[in-house]
Write a structure and sequence with these properties.
This protein is mainly alpha-helical and 217 residues long. The chain has nine helices and three strands, in the order βββααααααααα. Strand 1 and strand 2 form a beta hairpin.
Length: 217
């Protein structure tokens, strides 16, 4: 039966160790997976296979934690990232379940956070948000729940106000055209855009320059 003759911490990754059997390098493991191993311990093939399977699961989990450092991710985004790293499908699903238990993967919560962030920093229409969330792999119930409080007219107004500084000094025709095109790109319909553009213009100009909604047609 092979005997462990050395357990060496990897120089480039202190979270992993190299396992040597009978004087030769055999395989690498996460330190947490190898925590119970000792030099001089005999280890059979079955234990080796179990250790390597545990290590594959731990590596997938650690890869996902690294992926989640920058922002929350949907479950489908996590799956795609693990597939990119050639992780077995069975391990991917085990990783998702582990993340759910730790509340690190929650599509309902992800959808709500996504909508809240968009509304605060880059307001857009319900239709545009729906498309984005579908691209993230969210289910219809999760999307519907996240969009319950979204008001297109309010979002269009917020988007317009955030854009207004770039349009200072423009005359009405150019202002109407550029702000309208911007709001179209954010997914808003003409019926929402027309009164919002007029409202934003009128809030910032004198009565002599005041326009009615019909003037945007």
């Amino acid at each position: 039966m092979p005997k462990i003759t050395a357990i060496e911490v990897k120089k480039r990754d202190p979270n992993r160790v190299n396992i040597h059997l009978d004087g030769e390098y055999a395989f690498g493991l996460a330190r947490i997976t190898a925590a119970w191993l000792k030099v001089g311990m005999e280890i059979d093939l079955q234990k080796i296979e179990r250790l390597q399977a545990d290590d594959a699961r731990e590596r997938a989990y650690q890869q996902t934690l690294h992926y989640l450092q920058h922002r929350a991710r949907s479950e489908e985004e996590i799956r795609q990232n693990l597939r990119k790293h050639k992780v077995d499908e069975a391990i991917i699903e085990e990783t998702i379940k582990r993340l759910r238990r730790g509340r690190l993967a929650d599509d309902d919560q992800f959808a709500k956070i996504w909508v809240e962030n968009r509304s605060a920093f880059r307001p857009r229409s319900r239709r545009a948000l729906t498309i984005e969330l579908k691209q993230k792999g969210l289910t219809e119930p999760a999307i519907k729940s996240a969009l319950e409080a979204v008001d297109d007219e309010a979002m269009a107004y917020e988007a317009a106000v955030k854009r207004i500084r770039r349009l200072e000094g423009l005359e009405w025709p150019d202002f109407r055209k550029k702000l309208g095109e911007f709001l179209v790109r954010r997914g808003f319909s003409y019926s929402i855009i027309a009164p919002v553009v007029t409202k934003v213009w009128n809030e910032r100009h004198s009565p002599k320059q005041y326009f009615e909604d019909k003037d945007i047609a």
